[in-house]
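Structure ticket #2291
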Amino acid sequence: MAVAFRVALVAVLFCACSETTPSPGSLTVTISGLPSGTAADVTVTPPGQHLTATTTIGNLAPGAYTITAAAVSGYAATVTGSPATVVAGQTAAASVTYALAATTGSLTVSVSGLPGGTDGDVTVAGPGGFSQHLAATQTLSALTPGSYTVTAQAAGSYQASVSGSPATVTAGQTASAAVTYSLPPTTGSLSVAVTGLSGAINADIDVAGPASYSHHLTAAATLTGLAPGSYTITAHDIAGYTATGASGSPATVVVGQTASATVTTRYTFEFVTPIGAVAALLGPGFSQTRELTGTAAMPCLP
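Resolution: structure written out below.
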């Protein structure tokens, strides 16, 4: 019995001794980019260890470790591989790269709309008397941070429009502006509105203008590509509807603009009875019976 007890005790002690904590791992942080003699400013958390150069930290418990770096002596830091995962018995890796912090920025000016072989006429002006002429899309670099104005002149028959000006240039970043060239318009438009019709009933409208221009409309529409000049809008009656005119007619079409006119119709109620029928028509102060032999307009009762 005593022998058996000793064997069991040895087994328990052996098992207890076998239940050890996981093996530690390590983490190598590589630091580069700083001139000789300049110390880095890097922190590994946990355990909150501060590093000034490339270091391998050993005896770390498995888990996630965060690496942070601060700028030093005008050098900005970029960290990769953080958080780093440490695995038992292995070495994780992360890196910190230092580079001189940017003190200038860039500006990209896009120029579009001109045919091949035609140069734009663009000027960029900025801080400190900066001025540069551009003939096509270009990125200006090493610019002092600040506000830059982009202006553009016509190129031949092409007019210029500028967007994104003034552009604000920030250190280490690229601002943008755009110059779009296009031929000036030579025509205008006319918008014809129609009111008073219901459902899917078609209108009957004629539009006449310069150089024998003629166009028929059955609904509201905007006519484009019209030669400048005077346009007359004529509305015709249709079954059940009376056209009361077109306000804004004649309409004057101007290059690059949209003129407008409105056609208004009035609803006419038609009381239709078979020929020979009798209908009672009541009016103010009288009563009478009238025989209708066709179609008549039914007056509204007061």
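Closing remark: The first strand starts at residue 25 and ends at 32.
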